[in-house]
């Protein structure tokens, strides 16, 4: 069953005034697939998830599951009346119940011992059903909460930063296990994260959020190969953004004057845009009037240099030359190595 958001907007009104948290959100999380909501802090990810979960009332627009309207203004069934399962960052297991009882909680009639054993086994917790949550590690607790959310076989699973509280090595293993389980079960999943690596690793589709809007929705490959804006390109390609204006045959950038030939494609004269540049494709030429090297970080064959403009803007360049802090360089990007996005 797909999960469809139609023209959702949401505002919080509180002591400090009105915050427009979401505007005109419209996308469909495809059936049986994992969709990541990816965005920086405050971009509106949790608000959107909470609207689908029934933890916030829908103010405007609607949310449907499998084509049937689930929530809309004045139609806000509570979480337990929705065909959704929830997994939160801290697991949120019932502390006074054993792991087996936690898993049994959402099952009709409490579920059979066999079914609970099967779930414990699936999430790698075989034999630990009689423990209480505080007797498990953080990663084990997250596995238990995944089992609890998946055991009732919800049509949709909503996960808010589910791996955030476990260390990086365990996090990678957990999310691979989680992806396998979700795919096997064919569960339509929305997973909130602010970590691009996590989104690329687990998602079939990614919705990139910025300031309460979806700025791009696509597969990991779409976003990597065809970013809709410089900011999406910077998230996925590890690239940097440099502001620029075309002035005849040159680009006047925030990092100095660059040749127009560094751009792949053409751009109107006088236009302002954002350039997406990679540290490995930027060369340096000694220039007394250039940028100052403020940090040299040796990384084996090459070094990563941090250069600064007089007004404090910084850019990273990868270089095999022998460079010392305090030296000055002009940046020379390789021909056709830079992507340009017109400013809107
Ligand atoms: N209860 C609230 N009252 C007022 N404003 C709120 C409330 N909750 C969230 N906001 C604001 O709404 C916007 C979106 O917040 P939200 O928590 O959805 O973002 P997020 O992307 O999930 O952030 P994070 O990654 O930090 O959890 C932010 O500007 C936030 O400050």
TrEMBL record:
One of its GO terms (molecular function) is ABC-type ferric iron transporter activity. Pfam families: ABC_tran (PF00005). It comes from the Bacteria. The keyword Nucleotide-binding applies. The keyword Nucleotide-binding applies. Keywords: ATP-binding, Cell membrane, Ion transport, Iron, Iron transport, Membrane, Nucleotide-binding, Transport. CDD domains: ABC_Carb_Solutes_like (cd03259). GO terms for cellular component: membrane. Residues 3-236 form the ABC transporter domain. This is ABC transporter ATP-binding protein.
């Amino acid at each position: 069953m797909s999960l469809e958001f139609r023209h959702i907007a949401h505002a919080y009104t509180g002591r400090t005034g009105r915050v427009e948290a979401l505007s005109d959100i419209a996308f469909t999380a495809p059936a049986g697939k994992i969709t990541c909501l990816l965005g920086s802090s405050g971009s509106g990810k949790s608000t959107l998830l909470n609207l689908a979960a029934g933890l916030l009332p829908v103010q405007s627009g609607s949310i449907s599951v499998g084509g049937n309207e689930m929530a809309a203004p004045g139609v806000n069934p509570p979480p337990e009346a929705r065909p959704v399962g929830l997994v939160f960052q801290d697991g949120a297991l019932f502390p006074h119940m054993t792991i087996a009882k936690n898993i049994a909680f959402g099952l009709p009639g409490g579920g059979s011992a066999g079914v609970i054993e099967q779930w414990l086994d699936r999430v790698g917790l075989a034999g630990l059903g009689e423990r209480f949550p505080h007797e498990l590690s953080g990663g084990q607790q997250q596995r238990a909460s995944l089992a609890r959310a998946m055991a009732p076989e919800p049509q949709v699973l909503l996960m808010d930063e589910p791996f955030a509280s476990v260390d990086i090595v365990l996090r990678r293993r957990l999310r691979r296990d989680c992806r396998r389980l979700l795919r096997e079960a064919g569960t339509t999943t929305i997973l909130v994260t602010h970590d691009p690596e996590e989104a690329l690793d687990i998602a079939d589709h990614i919705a990139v959020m910025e300031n309460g809007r979806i700025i791009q929705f696509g597969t990991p490959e779409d976003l990597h190969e065809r970013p809709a804006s410089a900011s999406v390109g910077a998230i996925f390609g590890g690239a940097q953004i440099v502001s620029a204006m075309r002035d005849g045959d040159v680009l006047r950038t925030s990092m100095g004057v660059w040749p127009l030939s560094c751009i792949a494609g053409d751009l109107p004269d006088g236009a302002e845009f954002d350039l997406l540049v990679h540290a490995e494709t930027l060369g340096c030429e000694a220039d007394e009037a250039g940028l100052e090297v403020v940090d040299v970080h040796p990384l084996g064959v090459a070094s990563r240099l941090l250069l600064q403009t007089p007004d404090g803007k910084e850019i990273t360049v990868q270089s095999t030359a022998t460079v010392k802090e305090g030296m000055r360089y002009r940046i020379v990007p390789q021909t056709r190595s830079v992507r340009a996005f017109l400013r809107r």
